[in-house]
Amino acid sequence: MSASSRTYTRSVTEPLWIRLLLIGGALLFLAIFLLAPLAAVFSEALRKGTEAYFESFSDPDALSAIKLTLIAAAIAVPFNLVFGVAAAWAIAKFEFSGKQFLITLIDLPFAVSPVIAGLVYVLMFGAHGYFGEWLYKHDIKILFAVPGIVLATIFVTFPFVARELIPLMQAQGTEEEEAAITLGASGFKTFLKVTLPNIKWGLLYGVILCNARAMGEFGAVSVVSGHIRGLTNTLPLHVEILYNEYMFVAAFAVASLLALLALVTLALKSFVEWKLAAEMKALRDGFQESTPAQS
After folding, report:
1. Are 148 and 121 in contact (CB under 8 A)?
2. Which of 71, 80, 112, 126 is a good FRET partner for 284, with 20 to 30 A between their CA atoms?
3. Secondary structure element (H or E) that encloses residue 277, with its range
């Protein structure tokens, strides 16, 4: 190792006690603000035993909340998958006027409070909203019904897939698609055979995050649901009702289901991140190897 390399190494390597202090501080922070609350949820959920724990899920209102949560996620996630792929394809592969405006619209749910998003739907579809009178005359229910919950869920989750795919597709470039089209492949076949295999891990990553947010959304859904027990309460809303009624074991039991979802999401997220990082590394290595040959 040269003297300059040793000097550089010493300049960027902190003393051992500083590294231990930083690592210990990070672990302590995680233990206090992440692991302890998570342990408290499961501890309270199982306080009266496993029988009481599982009885919490046999309640008709709990089953209805689980069903509604799954329905909202089952509709919102595929919708956002299609939108995310289409938006990322357009932004990463083409140049057009209004491109930056489209990116801004995709980021809008990140900047707007979910409660505000719910109020927007109330303004549009409520009894005194822009379309409220027409909907009432035609006996169409949006608010305080499943359609309103699905719309609110779609709004707060639609950036996730697109935002994961845009940088990935931009890094991959358009060379492979152009080569496939030059060889006679149609646009749809090019997407299936070239683009989709290249983005599969990024797409899965976005879908995992989208699904987790869809099942755990509270603010926007709370505004448009009406809190009708057994009809329009999702799992987060059901937890709130149980807690407000001092049914702590049942509340924490249902909350533990959402916590398990979060843990599964983290595990899948870590696996997909590893696969995605491996593919990006292979992409960079391939680019570096091809550059000298071209020059």
Report:
1. yes
2. 80
3. helix 248-294
